[in-house]
Amino acid sequence: MDRYARHSVLPWFGPGGQQELGESSVLIVGCGGTGCACSAFLVRAGVGTVRISDPDVVSSTDLHRQLLYTEDDVEKGRPKSVAARKRLGAANSTVVLEAVEERFDTSSVAGLIEGIDLLVDCSDSFETRMLINDVCLKYSIPWIHGACVGTAGIVIPFPGGESACYRCIVDHIPAPGSVPTNEETGILGPVAGMTGSLEAAEAIKMLLRPDAVTQRIVHFDTWLHLYESIEIRRKPGCPVCVGRRFEYLSGRETR
């Protein structure tokens, strides 16, 4: 039986959808808790090329939520992207997996985005997100943002065109200490998986049916049993999607 049979019976997916996925290339920036879940579902879904960028090595504090890694990875000090490629390759050998042990920054961005159709943000840095926003707008690459902390997570699609961008929502990088981090407040393991899974679902939809993408903030809190969808609109004076000023890509903006 075709391994993708459960996909092809979906009315909006169909047999042609699997071929489209197989011809698609996705860059995942960051392979922590959200990146592990997102990459696992995209690889198992049969996306043709999945490129993973992460400069970190696996540590013991990762294991409660980062499902691609093991204690052996910690003991051997394996880079996350390399360990992820090994586990993902065992799940689907037909997918081209590229492990890049580099941080997504102005020096690496040209090589990382080469040939991609979609970028998925699984990073944990506002600086990285601002740079992703600049890069994707300048080069017309759709992207998806995901983040989580504590028991809550958010996912936002950025399809481009006349839609809002990340700077329409987050005008500047918050001051240190003003936004809670996982190190300070903790993170419930399944929340990272839920966030990455939602990103993967949105990625498949964006690759196959971009006309069906609705740009809204999806916010959920597992502790409060809360799930909400919040409409967003382009900010009239946005310096990036309106003004076309790519300050983080050019290096003129650092905070």
Task: Outline the structure in words.
The structure is a single chain. The protein has one domain: NAD(P)-binding Rossmann-like Domain (Rossmann fold). It has eleven helices and eight strands. The chain has helices at residues 5-8, 14-22, 33-45, 71-76, 80-91, 109-113, 126-138, 166-169, 182-185, 189-208, 247-250, and strands at 25-29, 49-53, 96-100, 118-121, 143-149, 152-158, 216-221, 226-231. Strand 5 and strand 6 form a beta hairpin. The protein is globular and about 50 Å long.
Tell how many strands the DSSP assignment holds.
Answer: 8
Helix content: 25-40%
Largest sheet: 8 strands, mixed
* CATH class descriptor: Alpha Beta
Q: What is the H/E order?
A: HHEHEHHEHEHEEHHHEEH
By oligomeric state, this entry counts as single chain
**Straight-line distance between termini:** 53 Å
Please identify which CATH superfamily we are dealing with.
NAD(P)-binding Rossmann-like Domain
Number of domains: 1
Looking across the biggest beta sheet, what order are the strands in? 3-2-1-4-5-6-7-8
Shape from CA axes?
Answer: globular
| Protein structure class | alpha/beta
| CATH topology type | Rossmann fold
Low-confidence stretches: none
Average of pLDDT: 95
Strand content: 15-25%
Estimated radius of gyration: 18 Å
